[in-house]
Specification:
alpha/beta, Aspartate Aminotransferase, domain 2, 2 domains, seven-stranded mixed β-sheet, three-stranded antiparallel β-sheet, 12 strands, globular
């Protein structure tokens, strides 16, 4: 019964939420200004001005609150396709896009459409923990491939080693939550080669699902490769939660590559799943806003400043950290083998971080620096005291 299974899932569910809730308790005891909560990837800055102006404009549009096709407004999907095509060799049309309730909604309609019972989805650790639950939602399961030994970058040979008759899809997330690692075009092509060779060998097609909510948060002039240009059987899902600071509005979309065999049929199946999973369609108002603001994004210079402040301070204290190319996360190695125990010790100094075990990568921890800069600077003394206790 789900009641029994559900209790276990809740107990083992997101460390992110657990640590965030601990932060709320500490704030009541010590005052919010004295708690350094780096647990939740929740953009604190307001969305760009144009987004708010767009909301006001479309709120007054006649018919905005009515049903539309389950795939979303035609004009919005065409706006997104036009924007996508500016930097992609693979040209898409509005009909290749489905508007969704965030990237999470997108992943669920994708996996519902693709998975048969007990089929596998390959994920690369560290990974967003919900992937496992999303696969279970639709009768599948995840196969975890570790990347910690390779600086958080997946390798084609490691993917090849886990491919089998039950493999239906691979999820990649670049820039990656929680490591901030950006997969280069060479890395993507290496993974694509492994999948192409597997199809030739086994006759089985494997879909590459690219989860892309952080593609607009990239530093130091790095470029995010277009996955569809590297592999034909690609499905992209993304959201405006991070790029426009709209995490609470749950608006995103899915792109089905036109190079997929029977791509129109797959699109129709996903539209059907959008309805039958209960999403029905993405928010009408926020679809219009998303299309209107497709070229906008938050100021990432603020994030980069905070990345550099924390990175430089923690490395000076002796923490081992891969400098992230994107996102608003750091993923240092834990000074203690037991990352959960380390997180508990950090709480003594009112520092809230998420153990790497919550991302399939024990021995590390995540810092989410999408917080006010003043809080970051104020936390530095607490980090110093924590490092001193652990003799770094």
């Amino acid at each position: 019964m789900f009641w029994v299974e559900g209790k276990e899932k809740v107990i083992n569910s997101s460390w992110i939420r657990k640590m965030f809730e601990e932060g709320e308790k500490l704030a009541k005891i010590h005052g919010a200004e004295n708690v350094f909560n780096f647990s939740l990837g929740n953009p604190y800055k307001e969305p760009p001005k144009k987004v708010k102006e767009s909301v006001s404009k479309f709120m007054e549009q006649e018919g905005i609150h009515k049903y539309m096709t389950n795939a979303g407004f035609v004009d919005v999907r065409e706006q997104i396709a036009e924007h996508f095509n500016k930097e992609s060799l693979t040209k898409i049309q509005g009909k290749n896009i489905i508007m969704t309730s965030g990237a999470a909604g997108g992943l669920n309609i994708i996996l519902k459409s693709l998975l048969n019972k007990d089929e596998e989805v390959v994920v690369f650790a560290p990974y967003f923990v919900e992937y496992g639950f999303y696969a279970q939602n639709h009768g599948g399961k995840i196969k975890v491939v570790d990347t910690c030994h390779n600086n958080f970058i997946p390798r084609g040979e490691d993917l090849k080693a886990v491919l089998n008759d039950k493999t239906k899809a691979v999820i990649i997330n670049s820039p990656n939550n929680p490591s901030g690692a950006l997969y280069s075009k060479k890395t993507i092509e290496e993974l694509a080669t492994a999948l192409v060779n597997w199809e030739k060998e086994s006759g089985k097609k494997v879909f590459l699902i690219s989860d892309e909510p952080y593609t607009e948060i990239v530093y130091d002039k790095h470029k995010v490769p277009k996955i569809m240009d590297c592999y034909p059987n690609t499905i992209v899902t993304t959201s405006f939660s991070k790029s426009l600071g709209l995490a609470g509005q749950r608006i995103g979309y899915v792109i089905i590559s036109p190079n997929i065999e029977d791509s129109e049929l797959l699109t129709d199946i996903m539209v059907f799943c959008n309805r039958t999973l209960g999403f029905v369609s993405a928010s009408a108002l926020w679809q219009k806003v998303a299309g209107d603001c497709i070229g906008e994004k938050v100021d990432i210079s603020d994030y980069q400043e905070k990345r550099d402040i924390i990175f430089e301070h923690l490395t000076s204290l002796g923490f081992e950290i891969r400098k992230p190319e994107g996102t608003f996360y750091l993923f240092p190695k834990s000074p203690l083998k037991n990352d959960v125990e380390f997180a508990k010790i950090a709480m003594k100094y009112n520092i809230l971080i998420v153990p790497g075990s919550g991302f399939g990568a024990p021995g590390y921890f995540r810092i989410s620096y999408c917080v006010p800069t003043d809080m970051v600077k104020k936390s530095l003394d607490a980090w110093t005291k924590l490092a001193k206790e652990l003799n770094l």
